[in-house]
Structure formats: C-alpha cells, structure tokens
Amino acid sequence: xxxxxxxxxxxxxxxxxxxxxxxxxxxxxxxxxxxxxxxxxxxxxxxxxxxxxxxxxxxxxxxxxxxxxxxxxxxxxxxxxxxxxxxxxxxxxxxxxxx
Length: 99
Hints:
Strand order of the largest sheet: 2-3-1-4
Radius of gyration: 13 Å
Helix content: 25-40%
Largest sheet: 4 strands, antiparallel
Order of helices and strands: EHEEHHE
Number of helices: 3
C-alpha cells in the first residue's frame, strides 16, 4: 500500500472550466509514465472545482512528482485558468482497497 499521497483542489475561472478539464485529461499519460506514482485520479467536484488525488511509495516519490511535468503544466496555466492557486495537501494513506 502506498503510504503517502497528495490531494489537490483546483478551482477554475468559470470561463476556463472546460480547459482545466482538458488539461487534467491530458495529464493522465504523464502520470502513467511516472515510475514513482502508484495511483493517480483526476476528478470534478462541480462545474468549476476539480481535484487530483495521487499516491506514492514514499516522500521522495511524492516530491519527484511535485517537480514533474504535471505540476509544471498546472502551475504554468494557473494564472490564466485558475481562480486561485491550487490547494495542495500532503496526506498519509491509512488504508486502501485496491484491485
């Protein structure tokens, strides 16, 4: 079971919500390529609120992910697409049910 993760809340400007959705969909192949990323989920809470939940074997893998292509793409697009900076939270996984 991966012991650490990230939970990110992303709020899009209303006029850019679909662009944010497309950005997250386009990030999936990048997440798959990351050897340290064990699970990666992009989701939508509402019309303008999105999120990412991902897990890693250790803190080093989590930090590698935060320096990677997905984070860079999100931070580059943030000023134009997002209503506020992403709210990124470090979490410890207590339990998981995985296939």
